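Can't paste images in this forum, so I'm doing it all in text. The chain is below; anyone willing to post the predicted structure tokens underneath?
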Amino acid sequence: MAHGTPTSSSGIEAFYTRIRHGHAPTPEQLADLTRRYQAIGGTSPLAQHTADQVAGLAATLEATSPGAYDVRYGSKFEPPLLEEAATAFREEGYERVVGLVLAPHSSTMSTDQYMDRARLALGESVELIAIGAWYRTPGFLELIAQRVLDAMATIAPSRYDTTEVLFSAHSLPMKILELGDTYPEQLHESAKIAAELAGVRSFDVAWQSAGRTPDPWLGPDILDVLRDKGAKGFTDVVSCPIGFVSDHLEVLFDVDIEAQSVAREVGLNLVRTASLNDDPAFLAVLARVVKTAAK
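Text version of the structure:
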């Protein structure tokens, strides 16, 4: 399961309305989101990247466990919706379904919502094996660490003492903390392990892509952190959006355009780690996640 994205400019309003639980966006809100999509080419590549990941996971599982898995995709906000896939499994007589969200960290207000919707659609006759946070799966943080090292390699070693790696994930409303949600701790832990694996000298964490609502969201925001790094004398920042597994709006606009603009303003050289997308090594990690859960 994944978030989903409109596949054409004409679908942005309907997509935005679903995100807002049936409430249509204001003209200003729609114009702002449309502007962001236009800045990265009109639509997000997320749909294709997700399709490639789903197909790659299916092929990886088939190669190692022939005939054992039927892999299907369901989106939270864009057809095919996850309820459609879940209902099909139920109607076809499946008894056990493994639920995997393409996000390494879990939260009551993100991945848990996918599972709740899937569980409801599957009904009581189907067992849902819900996968929570999977960033500790062997191989995942090693992949992240290698991407950090690849990005560091574009920076002159003489500047490493003034270089920092900044790990980020999608912000969520702060009210998740009242529920005892461990989402923030998961980000800090995964960042710490990845930094240790990469052997980086200095790292920090930030939140990005907060929603435009009156409620306070988790911080500090990546834009504020970048301004702070510039004021503290850093020369270079490696941005690692560790909470995302493919190129999409929150990476291509929020980091590559918005954060990059702030970095230039404060005199920072900002380089981003390459996204995982359909890297075979990443697909092998996902297959490991599924097999472990299925056992």
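The first helix runs from residue 12 to 19. The chain has a mean pLDDT of 97.
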